[in-house]
Amino acid sequence: MTPDLADLLVTWHRNCLLHEPAGEVWLGVWDAGTEVPARASVLLDAVRAAGARVVPASAHGREALLGVHDAALIDHLATIWRRWEDGGYLADYGRRRVVPYVFPTAGLLAGLPLRTPAAVHAETGNFCYDTMTLIGPGSWEAIRAAADTALTAADLVTQGARVAYALCRPPGHHAGQASYGGSCYLNNAAIAAQSLRRSGAGRVAVIDIDAHHGNGTQAIFYDRNDVYYGSLHVDPGAGWFPHYAGFADERGSGAGEGANRNVPLAPGTGDDGWLAGVGALCQDVRERGADAVVVSLGVDAAEADPESPLRVSADGYQRAGELIGGLGLPAVAVQEGGYDQASLGGLVVATLSGLMS
Fold this sequence. Notes:
The chain is of the alpha/beta class. The protein contains eleven helices and ten strands.
């Protein structure tokens, strides 16, 4: 029987379908990719079938983004496709998506100042840290719509809703203050958390259940005490994205010391180990105190998902939702990963059902 989500508010913007990365470049080869528009359509159909009420996302000002991201990143994302076209990369060279090819790493700069390159194709690597996160003609409209979707869900919770689900696409938790990657461009969960803070929540907790560490969210709040970030994810030390972040000894810095918690999981971990990690993060939130929670709701830890080696069941997701819901906090659930279209809708509905119980 389909769970009843009649009391759930879902925020959605149709422009989230406009981002079509047309694949990804992985290990130097153009692959089909899995972060496709159909993901959002599947989720929208699933929550509607479960009885949730869909609320159109409303436009928010640029200042809501600037609370989390540098202006230079926002400007780059908003203009890069037009400049790519104007530069002839599509018409003259057949480069149908924006792909970085050089990155200003410390090794390249060797202590020299970071400059703004004259070539558009060189500029992109200053913001994008991988070759998998491509930009096309409708990408900015979708990126902006996803942020508005998260902000509208935060507004609903501020106005008294117990739970609101932001059906965001593209996802966001790998995007940092001035960087994007991992199929993420703006950090929807961080934007929602900052909105809750701005609207009066003294402390906000972000619990990230995506299969991969949310390195962007961690970095944004790493030196802050007012936003706790807790993540359980496949162990980057076992060779999984984002490779360089997500280790257990990353606990925050300065004022944020102790406000960051990572629970790396071994490949093959199933419900028991995964739920123990969710429980540990929830206990952290209880001990620290919070006025609201943002859930980075990725379901790519599921057994059928192609993007991780974890083995979580639909029942595991529902129980995880129950654990987080048991905190008794107003909650904004923000969609992150989840790529097996056959199981995606059911897994998200199961999690939301647990969160609402």
